[in-house]
Amino acid sequence: MNLADKNFINLCKDILANGYSTEGEKVRPKYADGTPSHTIFTTQVFEKYDLSKNEFPILTIRQIPWKSGIKEILWIYQDQSNDLSILKEKYNIHWWDEWNIGDGTIGQRYGATVKRYNLINNLLNGLKENPYGRRHIINLYQENDLNETKGLHPCAMETQWSVRGKYLDLTLIQRSSDLPVANSINKIQYVALQMMIARHVGLEPGMFCHYVNNAHIYDRHFEQVTELISRPGQEDSENIRLVLNPEKNDFYSFTIEDFKLENYNPNKPNLKFEMAI
Predict the structure, then answer these.
(1) Catalytic choice (155, 193, 195, 203)
(2) Which residues does the annotation place in the binding site?
(3) What residues bind dUMP, as annotated (predicted)?
């Protein structure tokens, strides 16, 4: 069992024992049958992983769709798109379909925001020209964009980047996290982004910090979470490594084929989770 497994299990246990329930309160999300999607949650969750010491934040008590997570990151930060047809046809990812605002997009969100404000190029140039600056920030929560169209507000909403000698550290700030469904996927995909950005600017991945303001478990996921936290983790999980193709160093040239996950043998079978929209 690795650090990510331990953090996940401890957080789930804390939420189930001490979390605040929205049962009886007015909530926005609903299940497909129209029933309000209530949660039990905690706030201000902080996790930290030293990638230079191989503290890789992937769960082994369940299988994580790491390739799909990285593909989504490529769609957001390389393609800089909100177009669902690109996500489906280029990457074969369909989990955003329910958030189609009616025009084939998720609204002026995520990749469209990255493109509008030239956020990635500004970051890459800033890290090269002023590496020890303290303003290396990508913020996807732009009020003008949110007011321009309907659509889900960004959950993984901000990244802050810091150079520390030969290392590039990353802090991911997330306003909301569906703990058993998406939390570990978000970690993997932003570590992959950290690896690509670090390679582009000639650095190595250092610390990865993940701050979640609202970590929650939906009321129709309690049974699955109870099973997950009772599972044993992978015994040799310290040997799991995400490897990036050493032949490439241009951010925009990386594809999913440039990533390899080594020694990953998670607990199975996978569990199904009903989506709250």
Answers:
(1) 155
(2) 134-135, 175-178, 186, 216-218, 276
(3) 134-135, 175-178, 186, 216-218
Q: What is the pLDDT of residues 225-244, one digit of tens each?
A: 999 999 999 999 989 999 99
30 inside domain: no
Total domains present in the chain: 1
DSSP 56-115: ----SSS---HHHHHHHHIIIIIS---BHHHHHHHH---TTGGG--SSSB--S-THHHHH
Tens of pLDDT along 172-192? 999 999 999 999 999 999 999
The amino acid at residue 119 is L
Q: Which long-range contacts (CB under 8 A, 24 or more apart) does 48-51 make?
A: 48/207, 48/208, 48/209, 48/210, 49/3, 49/4, 49/187, 49/191, 49/207, 49/208, 49/209, 49/210, 50/206, 50/207, 50/208, 51/191, 51/194, 51/205, 51/206, 51/207, 51/208
Q: Establish whether 155 is a catalytic residue.
A: yes
Annotated binding-site positions for dUMP:
134-135, 175-178, 186, 216-218
CATH number at residue 205: 3.30.572.10
Tell me the residue type at 3.
Answer: L
Residue 131's domain spans which residues? 3-22+39-262
Residue 271 has pLDDT above 90, yes or no: no
Residue 267: inside a domain: no
Query: What predicted TM-score, i.e. pTM, was given to this entire model?
Result: 0.95
Of 3, 46, 39, 31, the closest CA to residue 276 belongs to 31
d(CA 38, CA 41): 10
| Site of tokens 């983790």 | 233
132 belongs to a structural domain = yes
